Amino acid sequence: MKTIVLGSGIIGTTTAYFLAKAGHEVHVIERQPEAAMETSFGNGGVLHTSEVEPWSRPGMPRAVLSWIGKEDAPMLLRLGALPSMWQWGLDFIRNCSLERYRRAAAVNLRLANHTLSLMPAVRAETQFPYDLMQNGTLKVYTRREAFDTNVAESERQRGEGLVFEAVDARRCVEIEPALAPIRDTLAGGIYAPLDEHGDCHKFAVGLRKHCSDKLGVTFHFNTEIRRIVRSGDRITGVETNKGSMNGDAYIAALASYAPALLRPLGVRVSIYPAKGVTVTVPDTAWPDGPKVPIIDDTRLFGLIRLGNRYRCSGSVEFNGWDTTPSESRAQAIVNNVISVFPEFAKCYDKASAKVWAGLRPMPSSGNPYVGATPVKNLYLNCGHGHLGWTLACGSSQLVADVVSGKQPAIDMTGLTLATHQ
What we know:
Blueprint: E1 2-6, H1 10-21, E2 25-29, E3 46-47, H2 60-67, E4 75-77, H3 82-94, H4 98-126, E5 137-141, H5 144-158, E6 165-167, H6 169-175, E7 188-192, E8 196-197, H7 200-214, E9 218-220, E10 225-231, E11 234-240, E12 243-245, E13 249-252, H8 258-262, E14 271-282, E15 294-296, E16 301-306, E17 309-318, H9 327-340, H10 344-347, E18 354-363, E19 369-372, E20 378-382, H11 388-403
Parallel strand pairs: 1-2, 1-13, 2-9, 4-17, 5-15, 13-20
Antiparallel strand pairs: 3-8, 5-7, 6-7, 10-11, 11-12, 14-17, 14-18, 15-16, 16-17, 19-20
Helix pairs in contact: 1-7, 1-11, 4-11
């Protein structure tokens, strides 16, 4: 069966891989000259079961309103974005109940664990480097109340498959010696030993090459999708700047651009772009920095080593489809990292640091859209939010199952369009 994948970020590329493994003739349409050049290019780098909670959580709407106008806020709403996001915003607020939050977290955890179960076989087959490290993730807390609350929530998730260790300050330093200077300020930490990390862009490009060279996948780069054509209950083709393409099945892996292209087809997905910023610097000036990814719950940043680089993240901004990195927000992330790890200042040179911004396709429910639609030959794999790298292989393998008419490998409740919140 000829199957066309729309988009070649980490989601589209992994979709192509699992479809080709299932025996499909796969074509991928991508407007960029290479895979993973947008949302997947410079993300946080962690595949984590320990950070699958949705942003739609109790108290979040009030917090977002209180952060308006604060350039160093962890989540900044630009007032100019309101006209384009009001419907999504109402859906988001509706999903901020405790019941929906916990349900969405459980769905994401199920899918994240599925991804981690698939990664060893993917690595064994493909054999390309992507700065992989498998030493877990450590979330650290300086506030006792926040630590106790998060440990209790993690304990609740243990029965749903979360593997973690609640640790005191001494154990935090044992896991990551670079925390020694701030040991006395730590209330504790949550260590997730099964989490992995690596360069998502390198992985996507390596997988793309494997798909092209070994699996017969055809990637149509520098090809812009203009319209998906529907006739009756089926998709009949895709119009691009290079002409029309036709197939038997179509998978929308279009990230933040999915709603606009799917809406004319009668398919509604509640996704809005959330701009994330990362700063990447060489590690040579601080060789003794963290080897374990650190997530600071108080200052709301992440710091990870990727090969010979450090990458810090910790910002989200609702500003429509603008992809320009905010200098002030990037600097706020760096300042937060330096407040905990002063040695990071040796690595950071504003003139040479690589500042990146990408649009996370944020679902209002906190869960991605995976699987069939009312249009018989159109399938979804989009809306992964801040968890694209974490959920990519799992959701793509499920889509390949559904397109191939097979029983999905795991329960898809909460992921399909029909069971979405």
